[in-house]
């Protein structure tokens, strides 16, 4: 089957292509112009043709997300369910916006099976999980004993068993401190009874990920999320990486100073400067948008503390081996000083970090806002007049605590294409995604330019997945299921017998109880997993 | 070889029984898919069938599962997992007779601490839990020695776990425990550990939630998912003749009033009530691979068939076959 998408403006930052032209698809792949007629011709004249978008950090599956669904039945109106929609809607709404791959970034290896099964039920898109380490007892034992290569073996074994695409660590040591009754935990605090700091855990895991050649660097949810003055923690964390690759998740939530009459200010400008100066660092923003949402986080210490702000007033906190987590519903309000500063700080990070290859587009769905807020956010980044109108509707004293009103930068199409396509593919090691060169997987989004940019992004004119036209203007043309992406680095099997003995001793259950075999999630028509190569 | 399916008491082929069930469910004005003692694939398939039929979904053990859920979604809770409880708790209070005991050895994550395990059972549970909470709040109250000891132990513990089963105690008692746990966390650590209801109810609730956003007592009569613990109570609907066609999955099928259609998909030897059509199924996790909620790990677990056999199909396969014959599409999403 040969398909031609003809006459659109093709923007592909990976190859540097930006021209009006044709894009050819044969079966699942993009091909060079084949010199014969297409079986299917899709007219894209006047439109923008991009690779399918890739979201590196959205909470779309797993026990915590599902608990959020169960916690808030009264908010399940329409499709968005207060930020935790069912899988069917996740796939459909992401695909409608031109997203074809989404990473669920926080899965406890002990609950990986449920997450993978949930992801398997999400139609249209490819998906992946990041496996969480750093608060689990076994990791701490290996780090304390200085067993560097065993730690890498353990991380590799965990990735293999859970089907993960990378490793995340969440307030490393903080959950262990929490169960020992800590109420706060910072970068150089000592994990009770371990003599290890958060910094040490982070460094050890960075080393393990690098040693395994996993393309995605360690994905870090830092300490002190959401607290006034926490920019100091973020700056110290960037310095603590000592030049080694590190991804900082939802940086907006760490961009706060403690200045001004309300002891809360945006320090995003300072933080952006530090990111600009540290080429080893990548970040995603975790933009806040206004409205009802639900916060879903494995930072159990932070979520325990956030219960007081719950709206509606309820929560579900699970303290667990490893990380646990907490679900706290929350409403971001335009008239709220703090929320307005948060909104501005996120935009400042977008606009003040220069390199679009290192800043990623997220709302930390649904923590800053549901992913359905993306179209409005794209529009805000591309249009300073629109920003000015929003700013005019927000508390003046809040805007005075940010640099946002003075920023004039507008994202262009190339920058949007980098930060949502080319860069995430590179960050995750997905060589055949995020670009439009021959050989690439034919995941393609076609947008029809219009005055209302948000409307343009909300429902792409055409979306192709694996070479098939699946949605047109938000309407399903063809049902389709993607795969789960994972890495499978090799490791010394000696770690397995150690783990088996450990699980038997400590938990009284077999290690294999947590594995995700292909048979558990495979669909009839295709393999469950696609393996992404690691660096040799 | 014994038969695999029966229609009106006579042996039938599986295909004939599937076709007959589909016909009857499509003809039902208010179909009900209940029992739901099945694995994750079965729950997903039951959901998709119900969505296609505009049917209601309920689980045999939903009262207990929903009693726990109701407390969580009314005001919230602080809970732990069975593995963390085993590894970390230095004080365990088992409320009622159902929650299983934990090893009395020191917790592996804090081996220098001893582990004390108490069981709180018997009459007047509400009253006693009220006294316990009042004692923990520092009020001077005359109570029996057991209760006083438990209160002291909870206060002294570094990481206490309170286990209960909604089958044993009232929703108000669960609420009381959750508030007591909340109070204790002002100064120390204490978490709840609800015992999951039988029949894979926890797993089924999870699967329905990721499919629809809601747990059981879920209805598609209006084309979209609705959740109503009272309206979509299977036992109530059957008693009130609010359904005219019931598909029961798993053991303990009810007998339905005359004129109401009942079909049962269940392992051999199950109670099939007064079913008109019965299809024998494999038992997920025993003679077919399955994903089930495992109370030992507090999570879903893949369980390979111990005694694989290929004569009987698992419930999921039968439900999918029925759905394929029900083309009356009521709802899309
Ligand atoms: Zn996140």
Question: What keyword list fits this structure?
Answer:
heterodimer; A: about 525 residues; alpha/beta; TIM Barrel; 26 strands; globular; B: Rossmann fold; nine-stranded mixed β-sheet; four-stranded parallel β-sheet; binds zinc ion
Record the strand order, biggest sheet of chain B. 2-1-14-13-12-3-4-10-11
Mean pLDDT score of chain A, rounded? 97
**Molecular shape of chain A:** globular
Q: Summarize the amount of helix of chain A as a percent range.
A: 25-40%
**Structural class of the secondary elements of chain A?**
alpha/beta
In short:
By secondary structure, chain A is of the alpha/beta class. Chain A contains 18 helices and 26 strands. In chain A, the strands form six sheets. In chain A, strands 1, 2, 3, 4, 5, 21, 22, 23 and 24 form a nine-stranded mixed β-sheet that branches.
Structural summary, described in words:
The complex is a heterodimer of chains A (536) and B (333). Chain A is an alpha/beta fold and 536 residues long. Chain A is built from 18 helices and 26 strands. In chain A, helix 5 (148-162) packs across helix 7 (198-212) and helix 12 packs across helix 13. The mean pLDDT of chain A is 97. Chain B has 333 residues and is α/β, with parallel strands linked by helices. Chain B folds into two domains: 5-61 and 199-332, Rossmann fold (3-Layer(aba) Sandwich); 66-195, no CATH class. Chain B has helices at 14-27, 40-53, 62-75, 82-88, 125-136, 145-156, 171-184, 201-212, 234-239, 315-325; strands at residues 5-7, 10-12, 31-34, 56-57, 77-80, 91-95, 116-120, 159-164, 189-194, 218-219, 226-227, 245-249, 261-266, 277-280, 290-294, 299-303. Chain B has a nine-stranded mixed sheet, with helices on one face. Chain B has a four-stranded parallel sheet with strand order 7-6-8-9, with helices on both faces. Chain B has a two-stranded antiparallel sheet with strand order 15-16. In chain B, a hairpin with a 4-residue loop joins strand 15 (290-294) and strand 16 (299-303). Chain B is elongated, with a radius of gyration of 23 Å. The chains are: A alpha/beta (536), B alpha/beta (333). Strand 18 (316-319) of chain A pairs parallel with strand 5 of chain B, so a sheet runs across the interface.
């Amino acid at each position: 089957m040969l398909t031609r998408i003809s006459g659109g403006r093709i923007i592909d930052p990976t190859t540097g292509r930006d021209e009006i032209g044709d894009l050819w698809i044969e079966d699942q792949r993009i091909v060079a112009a084949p010199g014969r007629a297409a079986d299917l011709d899709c007219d894209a004249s006047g439109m923008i043709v991009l690779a399918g978008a890739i979201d590196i950090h959205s909470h779309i599956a797993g026990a915590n997300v599902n608990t959020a669904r169960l916690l808030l039945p009264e908010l399940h109106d329409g499709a968005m369910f207060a930020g935790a929609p069912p899988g069917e809607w996740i796939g459909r709404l992401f695909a409608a916006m031109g997203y074809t791959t989404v990473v669920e970034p926080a899965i406890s290896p002990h609950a990986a099976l449920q997450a993978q099964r949930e992801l398997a039920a999400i139609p249209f898109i490819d998906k992946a999980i990041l496996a969480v380490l750093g608060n689990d007892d076994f990791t701490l034992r290996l780090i304390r004993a200085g067993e560097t290569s065993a730690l890498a073996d353990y991380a590799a074994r965990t990735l293999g068993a859970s089907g993960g695409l990378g490793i995340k660590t969440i307030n490393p040591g903080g959950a262990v401190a929490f169960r020992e009754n800590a109420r706060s935990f910072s970068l150089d605090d000592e994990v009770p009874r371990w003599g290890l700091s958060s910094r040490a855990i982070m460094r050890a895991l960075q080393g393990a990920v690098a040693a395994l050649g996993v393309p995605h660097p360690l994905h870090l949810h830092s300490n002190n999320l959401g607290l006034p003055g926490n920019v100091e923690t973020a700056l110290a964390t960037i310095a603590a990486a000592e030049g080694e690759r590190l991804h900082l998740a939802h940086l907006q939530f760490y961009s706060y100073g403690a200045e001004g009459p309300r002891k809360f200010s945006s320090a995003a400008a300072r933080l952006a400067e530090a990111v600009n100066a540290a080429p080893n660092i990548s970040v995603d923003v975790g933009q806040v948008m206004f409205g009802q949402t639900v916060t879903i986080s494995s930072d159990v210490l932070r979520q325990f503390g956030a219960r007081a702000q719950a709206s509606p007033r309820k929560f579900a906190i699970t303290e667990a081996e490893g990380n646990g987590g907490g679900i706290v519903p929350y409403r971001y309000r335009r008239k709220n000083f703090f929320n307005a500063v948060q909104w501005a700080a996120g935009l400042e990070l977008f606009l003040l970090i220069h390199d679009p290859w290192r800043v990623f587009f997220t709302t930390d769905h649904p923590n800053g806002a549901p992913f359905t807020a993306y179209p409005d956010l794209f529009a805000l980044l591309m249009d300073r007049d629109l920003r000015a109108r929003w700013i005019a509707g927000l508390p003046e004293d809040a805007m005075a605590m940010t640099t946002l009103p003075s920023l004039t930068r507008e994202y262009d199409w190339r920058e949007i294409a980098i930060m949502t396509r080319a860069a995430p593919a590179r960050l995750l090691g997905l060589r055949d995604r995020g670009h439009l060169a021959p050989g690439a997987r034919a995941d393609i989004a076609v947008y029809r330019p219009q005055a209302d940019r948000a409307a343009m992004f909300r429902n792409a004119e055409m979306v192709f997945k694996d070479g098939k036209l699946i949605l047109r203007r938000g309407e399903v043309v063809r049902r389709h299921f993607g795969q789960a992406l994972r890495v499978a680095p090799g490791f010394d099997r000696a770690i397995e017998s150690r783990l088996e003995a450990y699980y038997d001793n400590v938990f009284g259950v077999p290690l294999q109880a947590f594995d995700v075999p292909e048979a558990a999630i495979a669909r009839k028509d295709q393999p469950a997993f696609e393996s992404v190569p690691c660096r040799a | 070889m014994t038969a695999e399916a029966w229609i009106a008491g006579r042996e039938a082929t599986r295909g004939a029984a599937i076709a007959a069930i589909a016909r009857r469910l499509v003809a039902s004005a208010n179909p009900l898919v209940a029992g739901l003692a099945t694995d994750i694939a079965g729950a997903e398939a039951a959901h998709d069938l119900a969505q296609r039929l505009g049917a209601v979904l309920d689980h045999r053990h939903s009262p207990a599962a929903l009693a726990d859920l109701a407390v969580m979604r009314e005001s919230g809770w602080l809970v732990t997992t069975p593995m963390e409880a085993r590894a970390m708790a230095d004080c365990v209070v088992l409320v009622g007779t159902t929650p299983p005991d934990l090893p009395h050895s020191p917790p592996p994550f804090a081996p220098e601490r001893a582990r004390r395990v108490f069981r709180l059972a018997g009459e007047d549970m509400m009253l006693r839990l009220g006294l316990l909470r009042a004692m923990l709040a520092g009020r001077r109250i005359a109570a029996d020695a057991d209760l006083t000891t438990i209160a002291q132990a909870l206060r002294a513990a570094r990481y206490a776990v309170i286990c209960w089963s909604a089958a044993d105690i009232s929703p108000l008692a669960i609420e009381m425990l959750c508030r007591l746990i909340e109070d204790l966390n002002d100064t120390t650590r204490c978490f709840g550990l609800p015992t999951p209801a039988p029949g894979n109810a926890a797993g089924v609730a999870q699967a329905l939630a990721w499919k629809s956003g809601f747990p059981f007592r879920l209805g598609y009569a209006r084309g979209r998912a609705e959740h109503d613990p009272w309206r979509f109570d299977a036992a109530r609907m059957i008693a009130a003749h609010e359904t005219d066609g019931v598909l029961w999955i798993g053991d303990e099928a009810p007998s339905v009033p005359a004129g109401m259609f009942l079909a049962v998909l269940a392992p051999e030897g199950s109670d099939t009530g007064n079913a008109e059509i019965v299809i024998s199924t494999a038992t997920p996790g025993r003679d077919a691979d399955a994903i089930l909620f495992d109370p030992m790990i507090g999570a879903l677990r893949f369980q390979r068939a111990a005694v694989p056999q290929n004569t009987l199909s698992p419930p999921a396969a039968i439900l999918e076959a029925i759905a394929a014959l029900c083309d009356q599409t009521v709802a899309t999403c």
